[in-house]
Amino acid sequence: MDMIQTSGPAHDKGAQHSLSARPVKMAARNVRLDYYNERIGQRLKVLDGIDLSVYSGELLSIVGPSGCGKSTFLSAVDGLISIDDGQILVDDQLITKPGPDRAMVFQNDSLFPWRTVTQNVMYGLEIQQKMPRGQMLDRARSLVELVGLSGFGDHFPHELSGGMRQRVNIARALAPDPQLLLLDEPFAALDAQTREFMQAELLKILERTQKTALFITHQIDEAIFLSSRVAVFSGRPARIKEVVTIDLPQQRTLSIKQDPRFRHLQDHIWRLIEEESAKTGMQTHA
């Protein structure tokens, strides 16, 4: 499948070449999934032969028309739902159920209101019981600091802003040290200014932790800013329409959104989604 390439500095092209030389962290092979609606007695095809690889240390975003199956695919990668055909592997291990090698971050922070920030971050570690409590506490505190919440460890969720709560949510997901971070529109509930700030913060966090991430979003500019590649899903049933290489400098600042190359990529991806939305009559999301 053709991938759009934009002209840029030689070191950017080298960065894209080095990406494909990395180990594959997650591989989806001919993934198919149907949903059976008992009320109307019909089977709905949701995923129709998804082939997609995510390289180690990469953030790959998935965009597509509303309702095309992006979140369903992410849930399948997490092992929350079973696929009907094909394979999903993480580090060459077949995924059949949820596991500690993956962590999901949802749109709503879903923090425990009776727990402090540090206690919320510790939750997954307490479930696993793989280290002494003192070590759990040290890890939780270091992650609170990592996500920029130093001094807020003893605060409760209701005392935090929306962006701060999502930082806690990300820290909690990172606590068990997953190999793959799955983010399902994590910034959708935030205001525009906070959302842009959190995009930059997420890149810093992933750079420091060297985690691999799969990111779902309706926002094309968000996908381009965060990603090394963007996978565009077709309308339902979802197939890979195109995987777009984001040939921009690896070090991203918000000012890059004004770069003509950024706008070119944005227009290209928008046209791909618009084509799919026109086929199904669905509303598109910019």
Detail the topology: elements first, then pairings:
Elements: H1 10-20, E1 24-37, E2 42-55, E3 59-63, H2 70-78, E4 85-90, E5 93-94, E6 102-105, H3 117-128, H4 133-146, H5 162-174, E7 180-184, H6 192-209, E8 212-216, H7 220-226, E9 229-233, E10 240-245, H8 260-280
Parallel strand pairs: 3-8, 3-9, 6-7, 7-8
Antiparallel strand pairs: 1-2, 1-4, 4-5, 9-10
Helix pairs in contact: 3-4, 3-5, 4-5, 7-8
Task: Characterise this structure.
The chain has helices at 10-20, 70-78, 117-128, 133-146, 162-174, 192-209, 220-226, 260-280, and strands spanning 24-37, 42-55, 59-63, 85-90, 93-94, 102-105, 180-184, 212-216, 229-233, 240-245. Strand 9 and strand 10 (240-245) form a beta hairpin. The strands form 2 sheets. Strands 6-7-8-3-9-10 form a 6-stranded mixed beta sheet, with helices on both faces. The protein has a 4-stranded antiparallel beta sheet with strand order 2-1-4-5, with helices on one face. With 286 residues, it is α/β, with parallel strands linked by helices. It contains 8 helices and 10 strands. It is globular. The protein has a domain at 1-98 and 220-286: Rossmann fold, CATH 3.40.50.
